[in-house]
Amino acid sequence: MDIQMKRGLLDICVLAAIQNEDSYGYQIIKDMQPYIEISESTLYPILRRLEAAALLTVRAVEHNGRLRKYYHITAAGRARIAAFAEEWKEITMIYQFVTRGEKP
Predict the structure, then answer these.
(1) Cα 73–Cα 74–Cα 78 angle in degrees, nearest 5
(2) Alpha carbon distances (Å) from 39 to 9, 11, 56, 88, 91
(3) How far, in Å, CA of 55 to CA of 77, rounded?
(4) Could you tell me if residue 65 is inside a domain?
(5) Residue 71 CB partners (closer than 8 Å, separation 6+)
């Protein structure tokens, strides 16, 4: 898979993982595991990139004597998910065109 496409898909997956409730890194990884494998070394740069793009915000909360970062999706992050859903319709049409002659 094209690295840029995969990068964009991972960004959307991370946003989707926090769209219903704030979450922290380890929990995000666990929530995504049934669908896609992602490591901490991949997740944290994505989280920083999404924060820099104002698609999510971060707050620190003390948990068992340590600070845990919780991530919250912004309105812009929700808009990005909605835009992705629209884009996916076009991608599906392209896929159908490319594979139209293939037999299962």
Answers:
(1) 80
(2) 15, 13, 19, 25, 26
(3) 4
(4) yes
(5) 18, 22, 23, 24, 25, 28, 47, 50, 51, 56, 57, 58
Backbone torsions φ then ψ of 99, nearest 5 degrees: -100, 15
Tell whether 103 is covered by a domain.
no
Identity of the amino acid at 55:
L
pLDDT per position in the chain (104 positions), as tens? 777 777 889 999 999 999 999 999 999 999 999 999 899 999 999 999 999 999 999 999 998 889 999 999 999 999 999 999 999 999 899 999 999 877 76
List the CATH number of the domain containing 45.
1.10.10.10
